[in-house]
Amino acid sequence: MSWVNKHKLPAIEAIKYNDQLCLTINDLLNALHSTFNTVLYRQVNINILDKVTDKSPFSWTPFSKEEFKSAITNCNNSSTLGLDKLS
Fold this sequence. Notes:
Blueprint: E1 16-17, E2 20-21, H1 25-39, H2 65-73
Antiparallel strand pairs: 1-2
């Protein structure tokens, strides 16, 4: 069972503010607070929203609960870590 063996953790990148890494919750909160206050009174150009096109709503083909359960059964996988059962 390879899923119980040691795994390398994915590489992550810390959040930086003023060229300093935010390694504690206080650093992160200070960065968020400072960033919010920096942009608080800046003008926003809402004309950028004119480029967004309207799309018609997507309509689903009706399906039953049994069809849904049958479809997600294939997604159930016991080879990953954590809770992975969908039904």
